[in-house]
Amino acid sequence: MEPIDNVVGSKSPTAVAINSASKAGEWIKSRLGMYKQLDTKLSPQDLVTDVDKGAELMIRKLILTHFPDHDILGEEGVPPGAAASEAALAKARSSEYLWIVDPVDGTTNFVHGFPFFCVSIALAHRGEVIVGVIYDPLRDELFVAEKGKGAYVHGNPTRVSEDAELSGSVVAVGFNPDRQFALPTNMKGINALALQTRSIRAGGSAALHLAYVAAGRLSGYYEVGLNAWDVAAGALLVKESGGIVTDTTGNPYDLGVRHLVATNGKIHGELLQSLKDAGATGMQ
Ligand code: IPD
Ligand code: CA
Ligand code: CA
């Protein structure tokens, strides 16, 4: 974290990330069941509300107040679809300081009143994530990670689980809204994992799944078809809690990874092999 503390003023970027996630989270919670506008993006399953947009605006303003020279990659500022998302990341990733924001991760849950969604904010320095904050406003759970300094939930260190085998693990999966490519691929993985794990979960928030892997509540998470803002903060949380984050073929995580496996480390190889055998890596 050395260079960043000196960039602008006295406020640390971690404090700004926490403050922004908390303020946006409180507001999102206050709007639960009271969104004014519901639109679809790429498919009828890909939802966005005025609350997603309002929360992103709020977070952008708070970040830029303290770090006016930094760049921001926020979900609601990018046109829908994998190609647009990849293009936006390609343009932004060379930024010296890039904030990566998912204002509401779990919008379908938010819309339906299913209480599992969060705010996810990461800061990358020259393409490497150095701060990750995930806030679940309904449980008032704040997950914070700083590169090289560990990860915490409300000040208590997080640690990945000890499960050593898939058969004794609970693993999260995702039902991606892209029904052309991602969902069919995920379904192959889900079919395999349902039989090989103790049980699978699909809570509907990639970022919270990652925070739960970091906290040892899940031993792994797999999904094909994610975007940088779904993963950046959570990936740092998992790594700083002793876990491993790669793509579905085992390459180390970087901001461009869309097909993701995050685990406690101990079940990583077994999970990757299972996806390979099931033809569920999403890689050609
Ligand atoms: C979605 C959620 C969901 C995952 C999707 C994401 P959003 O993000 O993380 O769990 O399965 O792939 O797009 O749209 O709610 O921000
Ligand atoms: Ca998301
Ligand atoms: Ca979102």
Keywords:
14 strands, alpha+beta, five-stranded mixed sheet, single chain, 8 helices, seven-stranded mixed sheet, 2 domains, D-Maltodextrin-Binding Protein, domain 2, binds calcium ion, 35% helix
- Going across the major beta sheet, what is the strand order? 3-4-5-6-7-8-9
Q: Write the CATH fold name of the largest domain.
A: Fructose-1,6-Bisphosphatase, Chain A, domain 1
Which outline best applies? Answer: globular
Cα-based radius of gyration, to the nearest Å: 17 Å
Averaging pLDDT over every residue, what do you get?
Answer: 94
Strand elements, count = 14
Based on secondary structure, the structural category is: alpha+beta
In the CATH hierarchy, the architecture of the largest domain is 2-Layer Sandwich
pLDDT < 50 stretches = 1-8
Distance between the termini: 37 Å
| CATH hierarchy, class of the largest domain | Alpha Beta
Strand content: 15-25%
Helix content: 25-40%
Order of helix and strand elements from N to C terminus: HEEHEHEHEEEEEEHEHEHEEH
Write out the CATH superfamily name of the largest domain. Answer: Fructose-1,6-Bisphosphatase, subunit A, domain 1
How many distinct helices? 8
Number of self-contained structural domains? 2
Small molecules bound in the structure, each named once:
D-MYO-inositol-1-phosphate, calcium ion
Sheet having the most strands:
7 strands, mixed
